[in-house]
Amino acid sequence: MIKIESNWVDLRYLDVLATQHTFIHRLNPCIKLLTTLIFIIMVTSFPKYEITGLLPFFFFPAVLISLGKLPPGPLLKRLILVAPFVVFVGIFNPLFDHTPVAKLGSVIITGGWLSFASITLRLSLTVTAALILVATTGIDAIGSALLKMGVPRIIVVQLLFMHRYLHVLLEEFTRSIQAYSLRSFHGEGVRFRAWGSLLGQLLIRSVDRANRVYQSMLCRGFDGEVRLIRTSTLRISDILYLAGWLVFFLFVRWFNVPQVLGKLLMGGY
């Protein structure tokens, strides 16, 4: 658990990546946020059995990772962190949906397995796009962009606080796990019966820590508003970036490029 915390859960590494000075990093935060939202809408708008139509959308994160000089390894590790949630969301589809929709040799593929694969691809694409947005923009710039796009301030403040103090909660969790490990002798991790009391202690410690943080913020003049001082101008490169991706998204959304290429190669036209 400590190894996981030290290698994977350090989300502040994305903030370090956001300090680079590449073409992607210098783009207007509102444009990057709007492009990512359009990408997510396009990806999630496909029918539930769609697989091949989603594949061209991997071009978007691949280009951003290359131009933004982002290391793929840390992004992949954080994507793996959400893998259990992906499995939990779609694992019941093969159990309830037995509709035959394809045949691979003598194996009949049911709709449940196709929808499960489609959910996995969609979540991989959307989570990767969100991680890249944070790694190329920074959470403060994203908060400022959300305010300019009309998102209520209270929601933006909650988002910023959640990102900032999630690390505090993780540190408390790690400290509790470390204390349990030092006091146990079986060396098999946290036993099932101990999770209840462990999570209860974590809740109490988190509330106590939150009160101390809040008192510290009040002592420093916090009045309920987070002031984000960040200026950004809209340039021609920002417009071209948004227009280029919008054309690409619409094209791959309405034309199934893999199927068209497959038919061309097989002489279907």
Report on this model:
This protein has 269 residues and is mainly alpha-helical. 68% of the residues lie in helices and 3% in strands. It is built from 14 helices and 2 strands. It has helices at 2-7, 12-17, 23-26, 29-44, 59-67, 72-81, 83-90, 93-96, 111-137, 139-148, 153-183, 195-219, 236-254, 257-265, and strands at 100-104, 107-110. The chain has a two-stranded antiparallel sheet. Helix 4 (29-44) runs parallel beside helix 13 (236-254), helix 7 (83-90) packs antiparallel against helix 9 and helix 10 runs antiparallel to helix 11 (153-183). The radius of gyration is 23 Å and the shape is flat. The relative contact order is 0.15. The model has no long low-confidence stretch (mean pLDDT 82).
Which helices and strands, and how do they pair?
Blueprint: H1 2-7, H2 12-17, H3 23-26, H4 29-44, H5 59-67, H6 72-81, H7 83-90, H8 93-96, E1 100-104, E2 107-110, H9 111-137, H10 139-148, H11 153-183, H12 195-219, H13 236-254, H14 257-265
Antiparallel strand pairs: 1-2
Helix pairs in contact: 4-9, 4-13, 5-9, 6-9, 7-9, 10-11, 11-12
Give the structure's gist in a few sentences.
The chain has 14 helices and two strands, in the order H-H-H-H-H-H-H-H-E-E-H-H-H-H-H-H. It is mainly alpha-helical and 269 residues long.
